[in-house]
Design a protein that fits this description.
Strand order of the largest sheet: 7-8-6-9-10-11-12-13-14
CATH architecture of the largest domain: 3-Layer(aba) Sandwich
Shape: globular
Distance between the termini: 56 Å
Number of domains: 3
Helix content: 25-40%
Structural class: alpha/beta
CATH superfamily of the largest domain: Mur-like, catalytic domain
Oligomer: single chain
CATH topology of the largest domain: UDP-N-acetylmuramoyl-L-alanine:D-glutamate ligase
CATH class of the largest domain: Alpha Beta
Largest sheet: 9 strands, mixed
Length: 442
């Protein structure tokens, strides 16, 4: 069996080891030419790395590689995609345990990690992987039928997904990754693949307040469990599914716990909490004590509203994972204090008008503008009459010092850029880590 690994990143490295262990002849195909490859693998590197792929039996696509690129590079092989698989498809094909799949535009990592913690605290053997950074093939051999697997699944992983999760979770969905997809329809269709093959033996947990989410999960034939978080001081307008009513989190008319039990910052995180509860409620037998204990101790993931340090009565928060306008708006609304907001980065073609409006209305002391989108942000802010703008500089040290110079006691300095990191930083993790280093050096 001849297997080509298309893209040698973390996912590709796992794939190469997995199929090599199965006895396959491995060829690694990547546009980079300076890779350190395993001794067992052949290689096809450089600009032509996707050429002549029909000679292989299996093509393992890395998530960041759009299937259309494979088709375009092999015009004489119209059925080339029939040979394509992914680590996620391979895992679903062979996993002996029930799987909870979580998707959405933002909140996937937090919700997945919270589901995982709830299962663990209820005494279940659980595994966490997917887009959150762990390739599930790496733990496949440890999974038993009694286990539970939680997978965070992105649009990149779902665009050619062929299976169905036992429980599918769909959080808020808004237009995103328009620099990768042909259009918004393709993005939404990719998300739908998690639900389209579900049957009445499965469950779908979904954000009942998001119209796009409602359309995405309409393809599911599973039992549907809605969750809903109304705006502050608004009634829930429902008593089905999981929802917030005043100061309480409820399910089907019964109180589960108080909102005050939730350690996560921001009202948007209540949506993630409700989604996680909806996913595990039947599995853990409605154990409200486990839920309370978990919510009180779970403070979130790195780079998501992560408190870094307080300096001269100014608190610094790392929200580098906020690469969409909606995520940045949610981060701003998580704090009542005046804010110094670090904003900007690589343009993915998504409008930022909601962030501009929030800045104009919110207690934002100053906006520190960074990255290639800086000029556009400044133009939009000035058009709304907001002129408290500072250019952040070209390094994170300069950016943090710019923020420190304008922050006042009691302020929040918030790195929540609304854009991808490319240009100044390798990725959102690099950006967040550099921010933490710079803050800790103050």
């Amino acid at each position: 069996m001849n297997v080509a690994i298309l893209g040698y990143d973390v996912d590709g490295g796992s794939s190469a080891g997995y199929w090599h262990h199965l006895g396959a002849n491995i060829t690694i195909c990547d546009q980079k030419t300076d890779l350190l490859l395993p001794a067992f693998a052949n290689s096809q590197l450089g600009e032509t790395y996707l050429d002549n792929l029909d000679r292989f039996d299996i093509l393992v696509r890395t998530p960041g590689l759009h299937p259309d690129k494979i088709v375009a590079a092999n015009p004489d092989s119209p059925d080339i995609l029939k040979k394509v698989t992914t680590t996620i498809n391979e895992f679903f094909a062979h996993c002996p345990a029930p799987i909870i799949g979580v998707t959405g535009t933002k909140g996937k990592g937090t919700t997945s990690a919270l589901i995982y913690k709830l299962l663990q605290n209820a005494g279940k053997k659980a595994f966490l992987g997917g887009n959150i950074g762990v390739v599930p093939l790496d733990f496949l051999s440890e999974v038993t039928p009694e286990s539970w697997v939680v997978l965070e699944l992105s649009n990149f992983q779902l665009i050619d997904f062929k299976y169905a999760p036992t429980i599918g979770v769909c959080l808020m969905v808004v237009p995103e990754h328009q620099d990768w997809h042909k259009d918004t329809k393709e993005y939404y269709t990719a998300k739908q693949q998690l639900f389209v093959r579900q049957t009445d033996a499965n469950r779908t947990v979904f954000n009942n307040a998001n119209p796009i989410t409602q359309k995405i999960i309409a393809v599911s034939n599973a039992t549907k469990i809605p969750f809903y978080v109304p705006p502050v001081n608004h009634p829930a307008e429902t008593n089905t599914g999981v929802y917030v009513e005043g100061d309480q989190i409820c399910i089907d008319g019964a109180t589960i716990c108080d909102v005050a039990d939730v350690a996560l910052l921001g009202r948007h995180n209540l949506e993630n909490v409700c989604a996680a509860i909806g996913a595990v409620w039947n599995i853990i037998g409605g154990n409200t004590e486990v839920i309370k204990q978990t919510l009180r101790s779970f403070t979130g993931l790195e780079h998501r509203l992560e408190f870094v340090r307080e300096v001269n009565n100014v608190k610094y928060y790392n929200d580098s994972f906020a690469t969409t306008p909606e995520a940045t708006v949610a981060a701003m609304r998580a704090f009542d204090q005046p804010k110094v907001l670090i904003l900007g980065g690589h343009d993915k073609g998504v409008p930022i008008y909601d962030v501009i409006s929030e800045i104009a209305l919110d207690h934002v002391r100053r906006v520190i503008v960074i990255g290639e989108t800086g000029e556009k942000i400044i133009e939009l802010l000035v058009s709304r009459g907001y002129e408290k703008i500072t250019l952040g500089g070209n390094t994170m040290t300069e950016i943090v010092k710019s923020a420190q110079s304008v922050a006042q006691p009691g302020d929040i300095v918030l790195l929540s850029t609304a854009y991808a990191s490319f240009g100044l930083f390798k990725d959102y993790k690099d950006r967040g880590n550099q921010f933490k280093d710079a803050v800790n050096a103050l």
